[in-house]
Design brief:
The chain has helices at about 5-15, 25-35, 85-90, 110-120, 120-140; strands spanning about 35-40, 45, 55-60, 65, 70-75, 80, 95-100, 100-110. The chain is an alpha+beta fold. β4 and β5 form a beta hairpin. α1 packs across α2 and α4 packs across α5. The longest helix has 20 residues, at about 120-140.
Length: about 140
């Protein structure tokens, strides 16, 4: 169910790990930028190799990231994806599919770039998330 009240949306955003530590004004700004999206189990949110136009944060539910059909990770509440394509304007690096129904917060490319410029704390967390993924991919066994 999508949130209709501003306070409910504000609370949801404030509870997402990516936005932890932001003040009330910053959370309110993000709440004004994000769109909410509900998706059903099995829906593909982004396709590996396709252009990226949005950034996603999982508010509720679970998704799976795959690369060339191979499992990379499960993503749950607070996880985010789609940032790499928006940062470098390159193709999506993985496919992400809903494993359960998902409640998502979505930012378009322009809003995402503005968010990072206006909120260095969020930019640092996105960079930390990218670094963690890179380390995981480097340590993953090759087949």
């Amino acid at each position: 169910m999508l949130l209709t009240s501003k306070s409910a949306k504000h609370d949801l955003i404030g509870g997402v790990a990516l936005f932890a530590g932001l003040n009330q004004k910053e959370v309110a700004r993000i709440a004004a930028l994000v769109e909410e999206l509900q998706v059903d189990t099995g829906e593909v949110l982004c396709h590996e190799g396709s252009p990226g136009r949005e950034f996603f944060v999982i508010a509720a539910g679970r998704a799976e990231a795959t690369l060339r059909g191979q499992h990379l990770a499960y993503l749950g509440p607070g996880a985010f994806f789609g940032e790499m394509s928006l940062l470098d304007r390159g193709p999506r690096s993985a496919t992400v599919t809903a494993v359960t129904p998902l409640h998502l917060l979505v930012l378009d490319a322009r809003s995402f770039v503005g968010l990072l410029a206006d909120h260095p704390a969020v930019a640092r967390k996105v960079m930390r998330g990218l670094a963690e993924r890179l380390r995981e991919s480097e340590s993953a066994p090759t087949h």
